Model the fold of this input.
Amino acid sequence: MSRFFSHLNTAKTIVAHYKGEMPLTVFLKDFFSKEKKYGSRDRKTISSLCYSYFRLGFALKEKTTHEKMLAGLFLSTTVPNELLQNEKPEWNGSITQPLSQKLRLAEIDVKAIFPFEGELSEGMDIETFSSSFFIQPDLFVRVRPGKTGVVKSKLIAAKTSFKEIIENCFAFANGTKLENILDINKEVVIQDLNSQRVGELLPVKDFNTPVKVWDCCAASGGKSIMTYDLVSDVQLTVSDVRLSIIQNLHNRFKEAGIKNYHSFVADLTNSASLSGSLKQSAFDLIICDAPCSGSGTWSRTPEELVFFKQEEIIRYSNLQKSIAKNAISYLKKGSYFLYITCSVLKKENEEVVEFIKATSGLELIKMELLKGYKIKADTMFAALFKSPQ
Done:
């Protein structure tokens, strides 16, 4: 039995058993930990085939898993591939062609990949966005204040290729191992380009110190660390609905050198529970990086598109409105509320903005869809509001 058959057969078995209950990367890691017979090269090929299958989204639904894997591999690969040469030599001969040409050769309607076109935020290009599922986004880091020189020196010494995208933002090929080169969180923070660009909306010059900031859906704490770096004299409060997240955040803050902050666990849809945690607190800035579909990041995790149900859009939108409404009640007069998602869907973005405007009395200062699908980055949405004096 050829190794190509073995790799394809194993990948098809994995796809058949994977139900989207966890990230595909976690599922694959668990699978290979039990199946010790696969070497590193085997694992890489099998994983690539699995991701290739999911990168097609809802396209080629009439085709077999085998056919979809080969099509996805053809579209997401730019160098000659042994497996493709064995299975589809005519495709392998065209592997360096532009993606648009390869889509035609594979007879794929790019719009079929993402079936929720009517749900997209204004300004989204469905064809370019769908095509981006075959282009692995870059790995981005934000260099922390005063660390640029040492970071560059370490990267050059390690002969690690990088690009300087914007000030303090470096891009690397996806999969670059940085943990053995740089002090993660101390020198750099792993953070997508457009997640970093959200910081451009922070009204840094308008703040009087000390600045009381509440990152109400803190998750891994990336926005908190960025705010700590951009805004001088911050009194930081962080919260999340999950205790495990707050515990992980403590470790990350320790690595980042952030010591004086307040943290708590709360369900932001429960106003009574929130009141018990915050009491009479009021903030100069509330950052609401709301739980969302994550659709702006699906080129990194294409399996999430395949398992996504359209009815989830309404659920997320209602959740976001509830969180925003409760969080906004803790704003000081003349203070700011920053709403963020990594979604490309209008019900999670513009519709929530309209809800906030209609129910809170806040003034919309700026709203921006930070499109990443042309620059190998995630797509983010951000809206800055100000409360009346």
Summary: The chain has a mean pLDDT of 95. The radius of gyration is 22 Å. The chain has 16 helices and eleven strands. The longest strand covers residues 331-341.
